[in-house]
Amino acid sequence: MARKTASDNSNGHGAQRAIDATEGTGLLARNVPMRLIDIGRSGCLLESHQRVDDGTLGELRLQVEDETFVDDVRVTRCVLVEGSGSLYRVGAEFVQTSRPGQYSIRRAMTSMLRGPVTKGSFVNSAPSTGGELS
Fold first, then answer.
1. Measured between alpha carbons, how far is 107 from 115 in angstroms, rounded to an integer?
2. How far apart are CA 59 and CA 93, in angstroms?
3. CB under 8 Å to 76, separation ≥6 — which residues?
4. pTM for the model
5. What is the rounded distance in angstroms from the CA atom of residue 82 to the CA atom of residue 90?
6. Does some domain include residue 42?
């Protein structure tokens, strides 16, 4: 909470008093490099060297060749891969905060699942550091 002080001249001593300022809201964001393991219509499985808390909301950016697809996600689980040191499997579900735009991951998945391209070739076409959760 932010505070500011002002002189209180009512007692003639110039004493300081604290005045509560209006509380503001802020956003703390960070980029977390991830590798796409699997993807479907409702969510995806990612791999990261950083732990991400369950319930974290973020924006997933997926680079596929020359195009970037973006959607909002919620982390549903984050599990340490045994014997890996610091490698985590992160499950994330797509959050429908708005109608999918032209470069929405959800829209791309729906189109690809309806068309001749299979999910496997979509996943394999993503570079290993292609998705970021921020």
1. 12
2. 11
3. 43, 54, 91, 92, 93
4. 0.58
5. 14
6. yes
pLDDT at 80: 95
The 10s digit of each residue's pLDDT in 13-33 is 444 444 455 677 777 788 899
- pLDDT, tens digit (0-9, with 9 covering 90-100), for 28-67: 788 899 999 999 889 999 999 999 999 999 999 988 888 8
The answer to the question of residue 101 being in a domain is yes
Domain hosting 93: range is 32-133
Secondary structure class of 36 (helix, strand, coil): strand
Task: Classify residue 1 as exposed, middle or buried by CB count within 10 Å of its CB (0-12, 13-18, 19+).
Answer: exposed
What is the per-residue DSSP string for 76-110?
EEEEEPTTSSS-EEEEEEE--SS---TTBHHHHHH
The total of structural domains in the chain comes to: 1
pLDDT at position 114:
73
Residue 17 lies in a domain: no
Per the DSSP assignment, residues forming a β-bridge with 32 are 133
Q: Is residue 85 part of a domain?
A: yes
Q: The domain spanning residue 82 has which CATH number?
A: 2.40.10.220
